[in-house]
Specification:
Blueprint lengths: L1 H24 L31 H8 L2 H38 L4 H8 L7 H12 L4 H43 L8 H4 L1 H10 L1
């Protein structure tokens, strides 16, 4: 673009000067062949500074960049590498956890089986439940009956857990009373140590 602009300016100037010469100066212009050829001129000469002739590129760079800057750059590079490794390790760990969870939930095989419309790829327990539901035409009434049964089972389980808690609390109270009464003669291990596993089981069912 710059070359075209320069060429246009030159042609405009040439036309202007030719017109002025033909009307005012009336000078005889030599032909292009009679003119001295234009040759290029070397405006800049490349030379290597004397203080660089005896140094390697690394030595030159060391003299240009301060040692403190080089150390800071090295620390920054190490920090970036460490951060990248940590993030990659976290990503790999999360990917492994996701694969384990998907395998536990039998995904994506389960979704593929559902999309295909075939029950062959479903887990046995789920396939049995679906077959049982299909016997009742998948009715909402049957689902409500199952929900009621589940609720009743839950109430019974909660009642059993509450009864077990009461028994353990009563046993702990009795142990504390006997321990306070007989002091060092009461050789039985403390109740909380004997029933700790039972309390953990109860907490796990809550």
């Amino acid at each position: 673009d710059n070359l075209k602009l320069l060429e246009r300016d030159c042609m405009t100037s040439l036309s202007k000067y030719e017109k002025e010469n033909n009307t005012v100066y009336l000078e005889r212009l030599p032909s292009a062949d009679a003119l001295v050829p234009i040759v290029g001129a070397q405006l800049v000469k490349s030379t290597v500074p004397e203080f660089l002739t005896s140094k390697t590129p690394s030595e030159v760079f060391t003299s240009v960049v301060p040692d403190t800057s080089a150390r800071a750059l090295s620390r920054y590079t190490d920090m970036v590498d460490t951060t990248a490794r940590e993030l990659l390790d976290r990503l790999a760990g999360s990917s492994d956890d996701a694969r384990i969870k998907l395998r536990q939930w039998e995904l994506p095989d389960l979704l593929v089986a559902l999309d295909s419309g075939s029950a062959a790829g479903l887990p046995d327990a789920l396939r049995a439940d679906l077959e049982e539901l299909s016997k009742h035409n998948g009715s909402l009434t049957h689902l409500n009956d199952i929900s009621v049964q589940i609720g009743e089972c839950r109430r019974q389980a909660e009642a059993s857990l509450a009864s077990a808690e009461d028994m353990l609390k009563g046993e702990a109270k009795e142990d504390a009373e006997l321990r306070d009464q007989f002091k060092e003669r009461w050789k039985r291990p403390p109740s909380e140590g004997l029933t700790a596993m039972l309390w953990e089981l109860i907490a796990g069912y809550r």
